[in-house]
């Protein structure tokens, strides 16, 4: 397992949540899902553009013209 480096704010949160009991704070930190397996660290999530679904996305627009842009994406 790989432990992410918690921020000072995160450390304080877990300590305060556990009444400054270090052992309980560490247990809470691990139980909260802040530990990743080596495999998860080596394969970070990816986003792939599947399609640009905007109608006529090649159209030129004037300055300050409102428009809506839409995409279909796939997350892994």
Quick one: overall form?
elongated
Which spans have pLDDT < 50 for at least 5 consecutive residues?
Answer: none
Give the neighbour order of strands across the main sheet. Answer: 1-2
CA-atom Rg in angstroms? 22 Å
Provide mean pLDDT, rounded.
79
Instruction: State the share of residues found in helices, binned by percent.
Output: 25-40%
Largest sheet: 2 strands, antiparallel
H/E series: EHHEHEE
* Number of separate strands: 4
Classify the beta-strand content into a percent band: 15-25%
Number of helices: 3
- Cα separation of the termini: 21 Å
- Whole-number total of structural domains: 1
Structural class: alpha+beta
Keywords:
single chain, 76 residues, alpha+beta, two-stranded antiparallel ribbon, 3 helices, elongated
Give a written overview of the molecule.
It holds the Pfam family UBA_4. InterPro entries: UBA-like_sf. The chain has 76 residues and is an alpha+beta fold. 33% of the residues lie in helices and 20% in strands. It is built from 3 helices and 4 strands. It has helices at residues 8-17, 22-31, 38-42; strands at 2-3, 35-36, 47-52, 71-75. It has a two-stranded antiparallel ribbon with strand order 1-2. α1 (8-17) packs across α2 (22-31).
């Amino acid at each position: 397992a790989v432990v992410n480096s918690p921020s000072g704010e995160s450390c304080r949160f877990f300590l305060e949540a556990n009444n400054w009991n270090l052992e309980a704070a560490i247990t809470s930190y691990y139980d909260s899902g802040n530990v990743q397996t080596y495999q998860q660290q080596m394969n970070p999530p990816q986003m792939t553009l599947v399609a640009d679904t905007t109608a006529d996305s090649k159209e030129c627009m004037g300055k300050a013209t409102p428009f809506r842009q839409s995409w279909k994406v796939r997350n892994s």
